[in-house]
Amino acid sequence: MSAPSQAAPARSAGYGRVLAVPEFRAVFAAHVLSMLGVIVSEVALTVLVYDRTRSPLLSALTFAVGFLPYAVGGTLLAPVADRFPARRVLVTCDVVCAGCVAVMAAPGTGTGALLALRCGLAVVSPVFAGTRMATLADVLGTGELFVLGRSLLRIVAQSALLAGYGLGGLLLTAVTPRAALVITVGTFLASAALLRLGTRRRPARTRDRAQPPPGPRPLLADRRVRLLLLLFWLPPAFAVVPEALAAPYADDLGAGSAGLGLLMCALPVGTVAGELFAGARLRPAARERVALPLLCLSLLPYLGYALRPGLTVSLLLLLLSGAGSAYTLGLDQWFVRAVPEESRGRAMTVLSAGLMTVQGVGMTLAGVAAQAVGVRAAVAGAGALGTLCCGALAVAARGGTAGDRKPRQS
Which H/E stretch holds residue 6? Predict the structure, then answer.
């Protein structure tokens, strides 16, 4: 599996060549606007619910309901990504999100309706993300440029986590939560306009409309696709544990709010640094070659929590773990080769939905484990168990055919 593709270019194309593609620039700009809209709306909605109810539980639930519907949307709506033209799906998703947020901003909307609309955003999100990922293959091809394009979108997502919550907090010092929601309506509509005007119309991938396209089950029946999905899903389920437990861990360290902010930022900063280095400095064959070793090493730094490190060492451990997530560049290339073109949108949607779902489950289990054994032991345990799982997956991947160049038809 770790053998490089024979068709892979000898040298890295570099991010500059990806940004030189006009259609990708439109997708990239729309992604930035959409991500900021989602994050600012989350902050504003959480504050709005808390101001109205004074309930910390309901305020926290506003964030939690953003994870749970991903599995529903990814399972039930996955065929949409292939049955309809991609541009139409993307624009429709942005318009639906804008409509949901517009209703949230209306003065008469009750708390229950706010939470239901938040669920609506989460149901649409995996379809949007999966269709956008599949569109990258249409715009950039399925080789080196696709991998770098995916990498840039992930970098934007991580950077948006760093900047978006801060931007949302600053915005709420100047305007009310409802006004902030109105602003995010504009970001979703601007994203829709960019996608409508900046990308070409392409036909649906599923040509036969007489019968509905199959759901995700045929994808999961393919051993290579199933193995690659697990390679994408399982490591993040363990990787989110320090983030989920950052507040009690900062309290244990006596680090205060500043320390909490640093702990929340360290993992995304490491991820961005690792992606940039792998994308700009490593050749395509090297990225595929190091994917499985990095996968096995990415969670090892969490074991350092068992030594009761201080804030500085804890931050270094998180930075190292984040940098190890550069293994995803190799997985991206294997995944796009393994999935038939007519199923690409559905596969990407399932991938996106599963990724968010397992992270939500991981955060929940992290809280349960910390309650039972303490924060440090929970993080170290996640590192140990996660490394064992990654090692088992790597052995299965190396002995399997998930990295074969030619996809098997489903």
Answer: none
- C-alpha to C-alpha distance for 185 and 36, rounded to whole angstroms: 11
Q: Specify whether the CB–CB gap between 156 and 28 falls below 8 A.
A: yes
Residue among 49, 10, 15, 34 nearest 95 (CA): 34
How far from the centroid of its chain's Cα atoms is residue 67's Cα? Answer: 11
- Regarding pTM above 0.85, the answer is no
The alpha carbons of the chain give a radius of gyration, in whole angstroms, of: 21
Q: Fill in the DSSP letter of residue 409.
A: P
Contact in structure between 354 and 229 (CB atoms under 8 Å): yes
Report the candidate in 273, 406, 127, 222 with the shortest Cα–Cα distance to residue 230.
222
Q: Return d(Cα 329, Cα 287) in angstroms, integer.
A: 7
Question: What is the amino acid identity at position 396?
Answer: A
Fill in the amino acid letter for 185: V
- Which residue in 266, 246, 267, 265 sits closest to 256, CA to CA? 246
Q: Could you tell me the sign of the dihedral formed by the alpha carbons of 55, 58, 60, 62, in that order?
A: negative
Give tens-digit pLDDT for 215-238: 567 777 888 999 999 999 999 999
Between helix 344-373 and helix 328-338 the angle, nearest 10°, is 140
Which residues are within 8 A (CB) of 212 and not within 5 positions of it... i.e. 6 or more apart? 79, 83
